[in-house]
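Fold this sequence, please.
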Amino acid sequence: MLKKCFFLALVSGLSAGVASIVYASVYSSSMGVDFSKIVKPSGLVGASEFGTLLAAAGYFLGSKFLKANTDAVFNILFLLLTFASCVGPFATNLPVTVSNPELFPGYVIPMHFFPFMLWVVMKPFFMKPDTASAD
């Protein structure tokens, strides 16, 4: 189980990092802004990997205690923590040399959801879904 969680985290984190880089490129070209000096591509991949590895540890520990309800509780907590992480971009003080700082939250906030989304999409390929009875 730990090995499956770890590989799920690696694959979904890397996929989320790549999706973030693609989104950043599309956003930057369509909006005419460049935040690449503030948010580097390596940081996007690193943050995605860190988030999914942390999620894997939480999922593994949760599966030891919650048994049949692991997926539901984990998904709710992961989503709530993802929403909570969106507060950060609004509190970020950007350098005064940055043009269009009001576009920064629209640049980074969608990327906060990529690790969660890719985890949920990739999980069936690595683990069987919970088999709680539907009585």
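Residues 2-125 form one domain. Residues 131-135 have pLDDT under 50 and may be disordered.
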